[in-house]
Amino acid sequence: MRRTFILLTAAILLCLPATTSGKPRNDKEKKKVTLFAGPDRKSLLRERDSLRQANEALMLELDSLYQIYAELEYESIQEADSINLGIMAMDGIDHLQISDTAAAVSRDSLLSLWYQQRDLNLMEVEPSDIDTIEMVSDIPDSVYISRLQKLNPYISVPYNRIIRNHIVYYTQKMPEKMERILGLSTYYIPIFEEIFDQYDMPLELTAMAVIESALNPKAVSRARAKGMWQFMYSTAKRYGLTINSYVDERFDPIASAHAAARYLRDSYLIFGDWTLAIASYNCGAGNVNKAIRRSGGSKDFWEIYPYLPRETRGYVPSFFAALYAMRYYKEHNLTPEHIPMPPHTDTIKVNKMLHFEQIAHYTGASIEELRTHNPQYLHDIIPGTEKEYILQLPYQFTGAFIDHEDEIYAYNDSVYFSPAALKKIQQSAEPSKIIHRVKRGETLSHIALRYGVSVKNIQRWNGIGTRIREGQRLAIYTKGNGPATSSSSSSGKVNTSVSNGYVMYTVRSGDNLWNIAKKFSGVSVNDLQRLNGLSKNSKIYPGKKLKIKKAN
To answer: What is the DSSP string of 157-221?
Structure first.
C-alpha cells in the first residue's frame, strides 16, 4: 500500500510544471519564454494561469489521496491489532504504529465498570489514578513480598509502590465490593480455570475477568464492549462468537472465556511474555509494540510502563492486586458473599425454537434462573432452527426437562413463535442511534472500530467522504444498517439552488474544489476560492454551500 501511494504521488508530481510562479528562473529560461511568446504572448500567459490552476487542483487531489491512504493504512493496522480494535494477526507486528487516540477506544476496566453497575455502587478512584496516590497499610512490605512470591512462579509478580497501592485499595478500600466479587468467583473461576487449562495457559489469567467486568456477565462498557470478558463486536466475531438478533455470545461466560483464552494465547505468541499479553488485552498489541519501541526495545513491562496508554498503566497492577486479593482475602478479614449459584448445571443441546417460559412451565425453573445461566439469549428464546445451541440448566431441573421434552417444545409454540412475536423481536433489533462527536486525532477508522460498524456505513449515514473534523457530530447506528442517505447525496445530480443572484452549490461526499469547478462551464478553482473567501489550503465539508456564479 505504501509503495503504491509513493508511485502515485511521484506520477502526479511529474505532471506538475517546473515552476508555478510564472517567472523565469534564469536568463536561459527567459530566452525560451521570449522565443515562444511573440504575437501569442497573451495565449501563453493564459496557458500559464491554467497550469497554475491545474497545479493547485493536483495538490488538492494529492492531499485527498494522502488522506485516503492514511485511512486505508490505519484500517490495515487495525486488522493486526487488539481485542479493543478488532483483529490480531501474526504477520508484520513489528511495524504497527497506532496513535494515542486509539487507546481511548480501549475497554473500561473493573473500577470504571463499577460506575455503571448499580449493585456495585460508585467508585472514587480510577485504576490509573491509584498509581499516583500513596496508600497507607499496617502490613509491612516484607509480608506483601513474601505472599506475592508464593502466588505463581509461572507469571512473575513484581513488588513496587504501584503494586502495593493497588493491593491496599482492593483489600482495604472496597471490602463490600470485593466480598461480592469473591462470592461470584467461587462459581465462575473454576469454570474459567478448566477452560484455560484446555489451552495449556496459566490459570492465574482467569483473574482478568475480575478486572474486566467484576464478574458481571451482562456488563457493557462505554465503548460498547460486552460481557464478562468485554469483547468489542468485531473481535468477538473474529474469535467465533455468535451475535445476531436472538443471541450475543459475548454475554456467555463460557463461550467468551474460550475466545479470551485464544486471544491471550495469540498475544503471548507475539510478545513471549504474559504481562505484556495482559497489557495488550487492554490496549492492543499495537500500543504495546509502540511502547516497546519508544522504550528502546525493552520487553519489560515496568520499563515500557511510561509509554503505555494511561489506563493500561493501571490495568496490569490491578490484575496483580485482584490476584493477590483472591488468594489472601482471609488475611484481610474479607468474607465471600454468598451467591445462590448451583454447584452444577447440565448442558442440553437445543435444535428447535425454545422459549424460557416453555422450560419454566414444565421444569419449575424460574425465568431468572434460566436467564442467569444463559445470559447470551437476548429475548428468552433459543433459536434452535438456525443451528444447534446450548441450554445450561441447573441439575435439579434436568430430569423434568428430559421427561417432558416433547411437551415443552409444543407448549404454546404458536404464541411464542408467531409471526407477530418474531417481528417484534426483529423490530427491537432495529438500529439504535448514537451521536458521536469527533475528538481531536480521530479518524473514521477509529470511530468505526469503536462502535463495531464499517467506515462505509458511517460515510453513508452521514453523507460524508473520507475527511472529518474535530467537533463534527456523526450519527452512528449500532444495530442493522441504519437509514439510507438523503437524496441530496445521490450520485449524478448537481445539488444547486439560487440565492441573491448566485447559483449555490451544496457540497457532497467526495467533493473537492476541482471536481465542483468541472461541473460548471467557465468556472475555475480560482473563481470558487475568490467568490467564497477560500485559500488554497481551505477545506470544504459535505453540507457547505458555495457560490458558483451569477444565475442567468
So the answer is: ---SHHHHHHHHIIIII-HHHHHHHHHHHHHHHHHHHHHHHHTT--GGGGGHHHHHHTT-TT-B-
* Beta-sheet pairing, 473-477 with 381-383: unpaired
* Alpha carbons 60 and 536: distance in angstroms, whole number: 8
- 388 against 514, higher pLDDT: 388
Question: 490: which 3 cell numbers?
Answer: 445521490
Residue 41 · residue 33 · CB < 8 Å = no
Q: What are phi and psi of 549, to 5 degrees?
A: -165, 170
Handedness of CA 317, 320, 326, 332 (dihedral sign): negative
pLDDT digits over 80-127, tens only?
333 332 223 222 222 222 233 333 333 333 333 333 333 443 344 555
For residue 61, what are the contacts with CB-CB under 8 A and spacing of at least 6? 12, 512, 514
User: Which residues partner with 349 through β-bridges?
Assistant: 390
pTM above 0.85, yes or no: no
C-alpha dihedral sign at 390, 391, 394, 396: negative
Other beta carbons within 10 Å of 282: 31
Distances (CA, A) of 162 to 24, 125, 207, 256, 337: 67, 14, 18, 30, 28
Residues in Cβ contact with 24 at an 8 Å cutoff, skipping those fewer than 6 apart: 30, 32, 33
Which residues, including other chains, have CB under 8 Å from residue 31's CB and lie 6 or more apart? Answer: none
pLDDT in tens, 333-380: 999 998 887 778 899 999 999 999 999 999 999 999 999 999 999 999
- Alpha-carbon distance of 388 to 382, in angstroms, equals 9
C-alpha of 376 from chain center: 21
CA dist 75 → 78, 90, 100, 321 (Å):
5, 16, 15, 35
What DSSP line would sit under 408-467, residue for residue? HHHTTHHHHT-HHHHHHHHHHTSPPEEEEEPPTT--HHHHHHHHT--HHHHHHHHT--S-
Q: Which of 535, 537, 521, 460 is nearest to 491 (CA)?
A: 460
